[in-house]
Amino acid sequence: MAVKISDLSKKVGLSTAELKKKMKEFGFGLRPFARTVEYDVAKLVEEELMKKPEEEASSVAVAEEPVLEDAKDKGTVEVYEEFIEKELDKEIVKSQRKMTAGKDAPKPKIAPRPVAQPVRPQPAVAGVVEVEIPEAITVKEFSEKTGLNPVKVIGELMKNGILANINQMIDFETASIIADDFKIELKRKRLEAKAEDILSGNLEMLLREGDERDLVVRPPIVTIMGHVDHGKTKLLDAIRETDVASTEAGGITQHIGAYQIEKNGRKITFIDTPGHEAFAAMRARGAKITDIVILVVAADEGVKPQTLEALNHAKEAEVPIIVAINKIDKEDINIDRVKAQLAEQGLQPEDWGGKTIMAPVSAVTGAGIPMLLEMILLVADMDPLKANPNRPAVATVVESHLDKSMGPVATVLVNTGTLRIHDPIVCGDIYGRVKIMKNHLGVGLESAPPATPVRIAGLDATPGVGDIIQVVKSMEEAHQKAEQIALLREGMNIKSAAAGLERIMSAIQAGKLKTLKVVAKTDTLGSLEALKMSLAQVRKDEVSIKIIHSGVGAITETDVMMAAASEGIVVGFNTYAGAHVKEVANREGVQIFTYQIIYHLIEDLKKILSGLLEPEVTEVTLGRAEVRKVFLTERKSMIIGCRIVSGKVENKTRVRIFRGEEKIGEGVIGSLKRNNDIVHELGEGNDCGIKYEGEVKLQEGDTLESWKEERRTRIVT
Question: What is the pTM of this model?
Answer without folding.
Answer: 0.51
